[in-house]
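Notebook entry, structure prediction.
Reason for the run: the old model in the group folder had no record of what sequence produced it. Starting over properly, with the input documented here first.
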Amino acid sequence: MLGKMTRATLRAGTKAVVKATRQATAKATRKAAVKRAPPPGARDWISGVSIGPAGARRYHLYRPPGTTKAGRLPLLVMLHGCQQDAKGFALATRMNRIAAREGFCVLYPEQDRLANVQGCWNWYDTRSGRAQGEAAILMAAVDQVVLLYRADAARVAVAGLSAGAGMAALLATRYPERFAAVAMHSGVAPGTAYSTATALGAMRGHRASAPLPSSAAGHALPPLLVIQGALDGVVAQANGRAAAMLWADAAGARAGLPRRVQRGTRHPMTITDFKVKGRLAASLCEVASLGHAWSGGAAGQPFSDAKGPDASRMVWAFVAKQFAAKQLAAK
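New structure, fully documented this time:
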């Protein structure tokens, strides 16, 4: 009788283990499927890998539907912040929705957690060369998209949030001839830090920025849009103005009169343009009541504030204007 009871218990236990294993496997599979699924909406969500001297990085490319047979499309590179990935950044910014309507491609490179445990781009680590190495990998991704997916090499812009903003500025200063415009959201200007320790001080607004050259390899810096939250507790508000001033000084531009703008019930913002001979060198948008988050982003997403003015619309409006100006100048 004891033997029969033991065997029955073991059989029941085995069934319970098998059932629990199946449930855990199904749950993990569903979780992986959700993570790998593309953002919602009409799309071409293409995965790829770019390789440079400092290693490889994954990326995703959003291509609007019905454009595979069209001419070359403009390209906007979107660089996520710390504790984000490509898909999360696409969901928070909803940039794909604008790209589908306006007809441009969006490239979302993704930082490897082996390169930075928090998923941050190493924009600051210029002393070791890691920053320059990652910049080269990102340019390899741009080249790959231009070659394989027929993006327009003459109409490329880059935008980023936080660490992504720092990397966007680094790309624009290292490869100014490759970008028609750059947008920094809640970031630190290049030349303000060169290591992890100095980056922390720079984020708090405790470090001065080194002057930028007026041109690199004979090419002027592309126009800059800065969006900065007044209540940002991660990147001090002073960094936004410092970045805009740095760009303006390099171009010999002067600040115009600040103007206050508010759309509906969204957070108000103060916009200051820096121009030289009527040409825009930089535009600073300081958003009241905005913390360390993408302004006007999707509700419920990390690092996203739905109550702010729509940064994605602002970025594209700024970028499109620079594309048009560049095409006009080329004629």
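Summary: The longest helix spans residues 2-36.
The old model has been moved to the deprecated folder.
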